[in-house]
Amino acid sequence: MVSRLNPYLSFDGDARQAMEFYKEVFGGELTLHTFGDFGQPGAPESDKIMHGTLEAPNGFTLMGADTPPGMEYQPGGSFSVSLSGEDDTELRGYWEKLSAGGTVSVPLDKQMWGDVFGMCTDRFGVPWMVNISEPQG
């Protein structure tokens, strides 16, 4: 397997809903494992997600989990997930789905550096940046 870098998101009990939402946005195969799957059946958190992976058909990988018992949930703020490329239709489609029900801080629009760019926070509190470059030709 080639080394890769991908985001790993933490959630406060709604990892299943969030990862299913990202599957709707990006497509692909979603694998979810609960705390109950790994030796804690019957525990109050047994149905919470211990580890989830979304492998999208375009090569994107997104991982996430509910905050483990005994650890404090720390909402994000020092990171953003960035989507960038030249496929205007694909990236605008992601933008529409991610920003729906969330908060747009920078509308998706042409910027001074020449690209179309926007920033939003989805309904699960995850900040996203979308940058659409002009095709290199």
From TrEMBL:
Residues 4-130 form the Glyoxalase/fosfomycin resistance/dioxygenase domain. It holds the Pfam family Glyoxalase. InterPro entries: Glyas_Bleomycin-R_OHBP_Dase (IPR029068), Glyas_Fos-R_dOase_dom (IPR004360), PhnB-like (IPR028973). Transmembrane segments: none annotated. This is VOC family protein. It comes from Streptomyces gottesmaniae. The lineage of its organism: Bacteria, Bacillati, Actinomycetota, Actinomycetes, Kitasatosporales.
